[in-house]
Design a protein that fits this description.
Blueprint: H1 3-9, H2 14-22, H3 28-41, E1 48-51, H4 53-66, E2 81-85, H5 113-120, E3 124-129, H6 163-170, E4 176-181, H7 187-193, E5 196-199, E6 220-225, H8 228-238, H9 256-259, E7 268-271, H10 284-299, E8 303-306, H11 313-339, H12 350-361, H13 364-384, E9 390-394, H14 413-424, H15 427-433, E10 436-444, E11 450-457, H16 460-473
Parallel strand pairs: 2-3, 7-8, 7-9
Antiparallel strand pairs: 1-3, 4-6, 5-6, 5-10, 9-11, 10-11
Length: about 475
């Protein structure tokens, strides 16, 4: 595989690459070697922080030898190179530092259920992507591995916590990479990097074998992609529950990849450009992108109305802060176990240390109160959406933010999230409520940077159908960042 051929493949999505293998035009091994060339050509992005090239080569060779990829019977993404986020996507025997110096020597003892599903679908795993410490930040600037660069510009963050995955996909290194989302960690990098980022509804996927859920149900796992059909195909791969899960999402009516070939019934869409949290007004260019999407949806026959559900933003912010302090205290315990001693303060980033210290002091009563507040605000949000099917809002309230904004200590965990929410706005409400949410690259700033627009609904199928309609009405597929592996 030469550099020119590798560059040409960069423009294909995962379904398109798999089709080449199924037709016998390329092998999985050839696709992988092309992806490795693209990793090497974009090292300056610092998106891939763990090379698993030999592991990927062995898997691709075995897939090619078995013959299961020919004819497409192995599935729509079989044989495609794939990267795992270095958090929440454990691969047995592979390093998993989770962006933390305290876990720099940690090796996963077992694979996450979702990773097993990826492997069963024939995705060829050959590396891991950068992430902030324990996924705490909506930017990817860990002191352990260094900042990941946004392919669109040197001065803007790729977002986080799935920033390494987003940068790799945006630059054409791979067609798709895994991500996780606790307050926007798939959708924020999708907005910053001009990608499709779907956060599934709560319990659509499993946290087996290590946990029942993450952050009391706030966290969901999925992927960053450039096309809607890739997002749908990958959701088909991971949708479902594992034995022993505490709860599960209702089974979809059919495959998500099939659903996007059908137009949805006319949806009742509520839309606003204002934030649910106090802070600066939404950037006018972001508002314009949302309004353009609203006009396109109305033209497609959907019923679009101005308005939005309300929540007690103070209660939401307090609850999110408490849940994160306890989560960080729990991860401190993991670091203690891995190191065989208590980690020291200088082994954590300053904002993490603030959360850890608060977690040590958080009472059981406060934790239970945070869970109750999340549930109460979910009911308030749902009541506000009564009579409507979909919420259309900004993904970020600004264009892609600069570095050194969303990872800085603010004295308290609550103050940290006040700064985050002044930029991210609506993203965390999808995590709180458990609703599905998707960010689509429907706008650009006057400087040519991506702007994400977000749709929320109770289920993923209608979001993917609307996304497929908007992908045609307001296409983004020909946009390329400054750093593009297909150059």
């Amino acid at each position: 595989m030469n550099a020119n051929s590798a560059a040409e493949l960069a423009a294909l999505d995962a379904v398109g690459q798999a089709a080449l293998v199924a037709a016998g035009d390329l092998t999985a091994a050839e696709l992988l070697e092309a992806a490795i060339l693209r990793v090497e050509a974009t090292r300056r992005l610092n998106a891939v922080i763990t090379d698993l090239f030999d592991r990927g080569r062995a898997q691709a060779a075995e897939l090619d030898r078995s013959g299961v990829l020919r004819g497409g019977g192995a599935g729509p993404v079989a044989g495609v190179p794939f990267l795992l986020k270095d958090l929440g996507a454990s691969l047995a025997g592979a390093p998993e530092a989770m962006g933390s110096r305290a876990l720099r020597g940690y090796v996963a003892g077992e694979s996450a259920w979702i990773v097993e599903r990826y492997l069963d679908a024939g995705l060829v795993v050959f590396g891991k992507t950068n992430t902030p410490e324990w996924g705490n930040h909506c930017t990817t600037e860990p002191s352990l591995f260094g900042a990941t660069a946004n392919p669109w510009g040197p001065d803007i963050t790729p977002g986080g916590s799935s920033g390494g995955s987003a940068a790799a996909v945006a630059a054409g290194v791979v067609a798709a990479a895994s991500g996780g989302d606790g307050t926007g960690s798939i959708r924020v990098p999708a907005s910053c990097c001009g990608l499709v980022g779907l956060k599934p509804r709560r319990a659509r996927t499993s946290f087996a074998p290590g946990a029942g859920h993450g952050l009391e149900g706030l966290v969901n796992e999925h992927a960053l992609t450039r096309t809607v059909r890739d997002s749908a195909a990958l959701l088909d791969v991971v949708a479902g529950s594992a034995p022993g899960d505490p709860y599960s999402a209702p089974a979809p009516a059919g495959p998500f990849l099939a659903a996007i070939t059908e137009s949805p019934a006319a949806q009742r869409i509520l839309t606003t450009t204002a934030s649910p949290f106090p802070g600066p007004a939404t950037d006018p260019e972001v508002s314009a992108a949302v309004e353009s999407a609203a006009a396109a949806l109305a033209h497609l026959g959907h019923h679009v109305e101005a308005g939005a559900p309300t929540v007690d933003s103070d209660e939401v912010a307090d609850a999110i802060a408490v849940l994160h302090t306890v989560s960080n205290a729990q991860l401190h315990a993991l670091a203690t176990e891995v190191l065989g001693r208590e980690p020291t303060e200088d082994e954590f980033e300053p904002s993490t240390w603030v959360m850890v210290r608060e977690g040590f002091r958080t009472t059981g009563v406060a934790y239970a109160g945070a869970i109750a507040a999340v549930h109460a605000q979910t009911r308030r949000f749902a009541a506000g959406m009564s009579g409507h099917d979909v919420l259309l809002v900004p993904t970020l309230l600004t264009g892609p933010p600069p570095y050194a904004l969303l990872d800085q200590p603010r004295g308290t965990t609550r103050a940290f999230f006040d700064v985050e929410f002044a930029t991210t706005g609506w993203t965390t409400l999808a995590n709180v409520t458990g609703w599905a949410a998707i960010s689509l690259p429907l706008g650009t700033t006057s400087g040519g940077l991506p702007i994400g627009v977000q749709l929320m609904a109770r289920d993923e199928a209608v979001l993917l159908q609307l996304a497929a309609q908007l992908e045609i009405a307001l296409p983004w597929g020909d946009r390329r960042p400054a750093v593009w592996a297909g150059s």
